[in-house]
Design brief:
homodimer, Phosphoribosyl-aminoimidazole Synthetase, Chain A, domain 2, about 30% helix, globular, 9 helices, seven-stranded mixed sheet, about 325 residues, four-stranded mixed sheet, 60s Ribosomal Protein L30, Chain: A, alpha+beta
């Protein structure tokens, strides 16, 4: 780890030194001033950094293993959205106290997620502080020039989503009322699926891609702005966890936390996407791309324009 | 940035979108799900992550520009200690509120440090939280197999330090009493020198290297343990900011925050090190490496063993 302290060092040895997967690219892992990785010829390195703060991004009293699981999954989702193959991560952990049982649980959850996601623990930093803050830097490799960007959507493309949205958003009342409950929709909140295989399969197919972390309507706007187009979404096509008649339907469109992939693809890719639907059964076409208009995102109901709901996705500093 | 929110997006555009240096390795910077970098053939990527918490690692009321300067310098020091050429960084910033003046100052300090250190801003994440937490992931490139590790010290090697230690530790009372004061030793605390040119010059010369972040005596133990040797340090040779007769002398040996490089080199490298002393005038030989003994670090006074001071370096969770 980058700054070792005796207490910290013992802590790392005990909880984070073993059980994590290896990466063929790792040249030096935990324990020196920095980690070292190689990158095979013809590859680029995709990197993302994500912070989760107790009481803001997850309930402070949630089970430690689930806090770790969710944090690494949310971070790794950015790699899936780039079409990258997961490689490794660095962990920066700020903790109020080094409580043995909590740390053992946290490390176990992190190990389980890292094994499933095939992310090697490359290094980290543990610090003491008044509240729990988890920052994860994740990285993966992608063939040069093949990463899925937000900026490639073109008028005429179709808009797709990887699977049903809204489950994690609708789980929030249950999660907040009983952070330890882990049934039904709470599973979608704590263990969002990371769409690594789909992201890789979308290389050369999708024209733009991102993961939905702040809500479909809000995140669609990011692709629209980066691509200088508009995204027109058809309400009747969007797969949501509750029906349109349900009062919580709008929450599904505005809620993040599902980490589904939102992507665009040219019409010419439709045959390949239909084939991919055999492997990824949730894949759903939900709209199309138009030339940039007054609004980056339009919502329609069988072709008739719907007013965009005022309620936005999750926003910091607003 | 990895998870964009409208408020966050505007904030990033305003404060972090321009003025940072470029890196030839950058393929995609701020604004997508992840950044993308290339790595030239024959190079490895060195990466480190460092967290600084307000009130723990720096005074919460310190000038924002100095908080940023110090945070990036402390993080980049790990790259110097590896002999890496700086390339870029990711910023994870947790903030109690997006106070315009504070952010403008913070961004200005970060830009100044990034320009001097030649670190491109590759991406980041800004989140709201009850207190200021800064996590910086820094990265640099180093020719494959040439990184300076902690594990290469061998019995018979000599021990060196890049320059005088203790200035930042002795500045602490002044910094805590008046965080905005920026005279004398406080400069060493807020603007530690990052020894990038020395680190690069030490490739093929040093057998082991690290930066002193937690105090000379403590950090020497890390090289000793990783290399399975003992480091014998000569009190009369160690360059400290106050003389041995000063009551604060021990604080110099136990205080971190100077970010000097501590390294070992074989005797056969002495001619090259003498030549390097022309360029790096602070370079000082302070002891030698022995076979591993009962204690990883020994302190002597003209050859006579001194008891190791009980006061340790800065320790988290102790």
């Amino acid at each position: 780890m980058s700054a070792e302290h005796p207490g910290e060092f013992a802590l790392i040895q005990e909880f984070f030194a073993s059980g994590f997967p290896d990466s063929a690219d790792t040249r030096l892992g935990v324990g020196d001033d920095a980690s070292l990785i190689a990158l095979p010829a013809g590859y680029e390195l995709a990197q993302s950094i994500d912070t989760q703060v107790a009481g803001i991004h997850f309930p402070a009293t949630a089970p430690a293993a689930l806090i770790a699981q969710r944090a690494l999954r949310c971070a790794a989702s950015d790699l899936a959205a780039m079409g990258a193959e997961p490689q490794g991560f660095h962990l920066a952990l700020t903790l109020p106290a080094a409580e043995h049982g909590w740390l053992a649980e946290f490390a176990a959850g992190l190990r389980d997620a890292a094994q499933e996601l095939e992310l090697a623990l490359l290094g980290g930093d543990t610090t003491s502080g008044p509240l729990l803050v988890i920052t994860l830097q994740v990285q993966g490799r992608v063939p040069a020039g093949q990463a899925l960007l937000r900026s490639g959507a073109r008028a005429g493309d179709e808009v797709w989503v990887s699977d049903t949205i809204g489950g994690a958003a609708l789980a929030l009342p249950q999660v907040l009322a009983d952070p330890a409950s882990f049934t039904g929709l709470a599973r979608r909140y704590y263990l969002p699926q990371v769409h690594t295989p789909l992201g890789i399969a979308l290389r050369g197919v999708a024209s733009a891609c991102m993961d939905i972390s702040d809500g479909l309507l809000q995140d669609a706007g990011h692709i629209a702005r980066r691509s200088q187009v508009s995204l027109q979404l058809a309400a009747e096509l969007i797969p949501t966890v509750v029906a349109r008649s349900d009062s919580r339907w709008l929450q599904c469109l505005n809620g993040g936390d599902d980490y589904q992939l939102l992507f665009t693809a040219p019409v010419s890719a439709q045959r390949r996407l239909n084939a991919l639907q055999q492997q990824f059964s949730g894949l759903t076409r939900i709209g199309h791309v138009t030339a940039a208009g007054d609004s980056p995102v339009l919502l329609t109901d069988h072709g008739a324009l719907l007013p965009l709901p005022a309620q936005g996705g999750y926003q910091h500093f607003h």
